[in-house]
Amino acid sequence: SYIDLPSGSKFNCINDDNVKTKFITKYKIPSEYLLSLGVIYNRRNIDKLIKAIELINYKNTKKINLVLVGYDATNPKLNIEDIISKSACKNNIFYFTFFPQADLNKLYSFSLSYICTSINDGESIMLKEATMSGTSVITNKLLSSSVNNSCFLIDNPNDTNSWVNGLNFAVSNISNRSILNKEAYKYVKNLTWGNVINQVENKITKIL
Fold first, then answer.
1. CA atoms of 182 and 136, how far apart (whole Å)
2. Distance CA 142, CA 155 (A)
3. pLDDT digit string (tens) for 131-177?
4. CA dist 125 → 7, 44, 59, 60, 196 (Å)
5. Are the beta carbons of 33 and 94 closer than 8 angstroms?
């Protein structure tokens, strides 16, 4: 169980082709990309994500690009940089251990979808930041309530085939990306500290 926290008010949707062109040129990333952002722990299943993209790109002429941002804090160590360097899709993965805060809104806004899964925690503020930035999100059931279940789902983040199926569906359903973001946005933008207090009171009541 978890409590929703209000999202950061500094994030908003950016629809400016000139700004986008300058942004992707600055960071040398493709114009179309999926985004995974956050400290990389084992529970985030990034190794499965990379393998899934490798499998998808092997079978398709239109490649999926991934912008991956986060310090590798895996333990036991997975060595994400090594996994990327040995992957057949290494040219489609753009890895940053750090990204300037000033450009995070653009990073979210210009992505096709933001990816964040977890196998043992139930909240992610980044899902809300991506939503406020006008981006659909890809997550698993454990985190989906962060955006009121308005998201693409990875059924089992521990399973590579589940990633393949989930990513293929998200990337191919362009209209659904917009619809899901609009639904998630309505939910996230209305989160206030008053909502938080009500949720706390309701959870306490259920416990008592």
1. 8
2. 10
3. 999 999 999 999 999 999 999 999 999 999 999 999 999 999 999 99
4. 7, 14, 34, 33, 14
5. yes
